[in-house]
Design a protein that fits this description.
Length: 205
Amino acid sequence: MKISIIVTQEEHYKYSQEICDTIESSALLRGTGIAKRTPEYIQKKMESKDAVIALDNGKFAGFCYIESWQHGKFVAHSGLIVHPDYRNLGLAKKIKSFVFDYSLEKYPEAKVFGITTGLAVMKINSDLGYKPVPFSELTSDPSFWKGCQTCTNFEILQSKDNKMCLCTGMLFDPKEKPKDPPKHPFNVRVLNRLKSIKEALFLKK
């Protein structure tokens, strides 16, 4: 098996629907909230070369795209997904590392951030040098938070004035220090505890 990770081109537009279906089915399987994407939106990201795709001899294996906010002051990596046939191979980390380096090259002045409920994504982010931060340190662009409208937890985010949710905010500032070694080692027990506290607070009836 030889999987290649590359910046998207026109020949990859045909994978847009499969990418959307894989993202949605993965979220349903995990029972997590997710901001839904459309094939048209995915293709738009491919056209602007703000996306990377992993392929195994032409078969879709994984994907991730870049979003920029506040005139390039912030960038985020979204839609990170690995096809079920290629999971547990470390591919998600390879895709994330690839798109991380690519975004630093394309947007050298931008702070890289993300919000997630997934411990696996938090671990990958931490290894790259991200640190957990309050939402106040992330982009204030309302269009970013509007993208959370299709997430099942959007009402929680609204009730907290976009300042807190079940997701954890993480940030990498390229002006601080190189990503190796990471300044903020991942502690799964601490983040599991944080996640449990948030769920107890926000999901209580």
